[in-house]
């Protein structure tokens, strides 16, 4: 069994990104600039956004965090987005999800200019990605593709089972791994909350991707020998520690890892790669704006 060390790989890729940014700056260009909008005070979202801003600094990016209170209206948020769309000093921006209930995320995503959609969440980007055309790829699925590529894991002909059909992970990773690309050509099955007997499917998986947010839902007796596992879950579970919680994945690592050929840990697996691929998309956005 080999650990898919997302933390180490993300350090390597961030170093490569930093080298490109240094050259860009030496050539007289400004560095990439990422803006993150956070609405409300959800603890997990704050941690994720702070990680993104910290990683920007590590790579020599400019970054701006815009914090809005949870009573911000949809109109105010869309007005803010339109300002960022028109701001030439901003290469890309993200609106951290989930949003408070009174804001419709579909309307918000529709307002983001596709050119600055470094999360790859707008209908425009999703359409291009689904057609297999060049686009900003959503960071979490992109991170999974990068891990498969850098660990030299063959995907063609493999049976891939995705547990969870969210727009930000399950659906796009299913689409990407089913495409006729160098990392792709899998036979994909996407499970959802209505799927009966999920173990019937998970036991058949050569590649198992779990993105549901239910701690330890996948046990060793639900997978086959040699499975490659990506655990996207990161749920905060309250405990007696000083922090008051610890993070748990959707996969019961202790029972699944002994059967797996490769497996991502939680934390230190998929999470750091998500942040890194967002930075990568922002670098692409900056390079495009330099070429224009
Ligand atoms: N919420 C959970 N994952 C993500 C992500 O990758 N981007 C944004 N904007 N929100 C998220």
> What is the number of E strands?
11
Order of helices and strands: EHEHEHEHHHEHEHEEEEHEH
- What's the story with the biggest beta sheet? 6 strands, parallel
CATH architecture of the largest domain: 3-Layer(aba) Sandwich
Determine the mean pLDDT.
Answer: 98
The global form is: globular
At the fourth level of CATH, the homologous superfamily of the largest domain is NAD(P)-binding Rossmann-like Domain
The proportion of residues forming helix, as a percent range, comes to 40-55%
Tally of domains: 2
- Total helices: the number is 10
DSSP strand (E) fraction? 15-25%
CATH fold node name of the largest domain: Rossmann fold
Between the first and last Cα atoms, what is the distance in angstroms? 47 Å
- Uncertain runs are none
Strand neighbour order, sheet with most strands: 1-11-8-7-5-6
- CATH first level of the largest domain: which class? Alpha Beta
Return the structural class.
Answer: alpha/beta
Radius of gyration: 19 Å
Can you describe this structure?
- The protein is α/β, with parallel strands linked by helices and 292 residues long.
- It has 2 domains: 28-113, 3-Layer(aba) Sandwich (Rossmann fold); 139-270, NAD(P)-binding Rossmann-like Domain (Rossmann fold).
- 40% of the residues lie in helices and 16% in strands.
- The strands form 3 sheets. It has a 6-stranded parallel beta sheet. It has a 3-stranded parallel beta sheet with strand order 3-2-4, with helices on one face.
- Helix 1 (6-26) packs parallel to helix 10 (270-291), helix 6 packs across helix 7 (170-178) and helix 6 packs across helix 10 (270-291).
- The longest helix is centred in the C-terminal third of the chain and has 22 residues, at 270-291.
- The N and C termini lie far apart (47 Å).
- The mean pLDDT is 98.
- It binds guanine.
- Guanine (GUN) binds next to strand 4 and helix 6.
């Amino acid at each position: 069994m080999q650990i898919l060390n997302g933390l180490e790989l993300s350090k390597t890729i961030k170093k490569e990104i930093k080298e490109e940014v240094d050259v860009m700056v030496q050539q007289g260009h400004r560095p990439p600039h990422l803006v993150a909008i956070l609405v409300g005070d959800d603890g997990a979202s704050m941690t994720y956004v702070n990680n993104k801003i910290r990683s920007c600094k590590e790579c020599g990016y400019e970054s701006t965090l815009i914090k809005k209170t949870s009573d911000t209206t949809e109109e105010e948020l869309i007005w803010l987005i339109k300002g960022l769309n028109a701001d030439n000093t901003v290469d890309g921006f993200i609106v951290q999800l989930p949003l408070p209930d009174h804001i419709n995320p579909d309307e918000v995503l529709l307002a983001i200019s596709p050119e600055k959609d470094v999360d790859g969440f707008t209908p425009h980007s999703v359409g291009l990605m689904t057609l297999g055309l060049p686009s900003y790829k959503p960071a979490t699925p992109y991170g999974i593709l990068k891990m498969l590529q850098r660990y030299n894991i063959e995907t063609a002909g493999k049976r891939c089972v995705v547990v969870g059909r969210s727009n930000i992970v399950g659906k796009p990773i299913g689409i990407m791994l089913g495409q006729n690309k160098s990392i792709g050509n899998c036979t994909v099955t996407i499970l959802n909350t209505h799927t009966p007997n999920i173990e019937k499917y998970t036991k058949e998986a050569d590649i198992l991707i779990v993105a549901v947010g239910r701690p330890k839902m996948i046990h060793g007796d639900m997978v086959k020998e040699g499975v490659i596992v990506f655990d996207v879950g990161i749920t905060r579970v309250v405990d007696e520690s000083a922090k008051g919680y610890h993070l748990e994945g959707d996969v019961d690592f202790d029972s699944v890892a002994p059967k797996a050929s490769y497996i991502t840990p939680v934390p230190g697996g998929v999470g750091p790669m998500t942040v890194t691929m967002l930075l990568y998309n922002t670098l692409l956005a900056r390079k495009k704006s330099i070429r224009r």
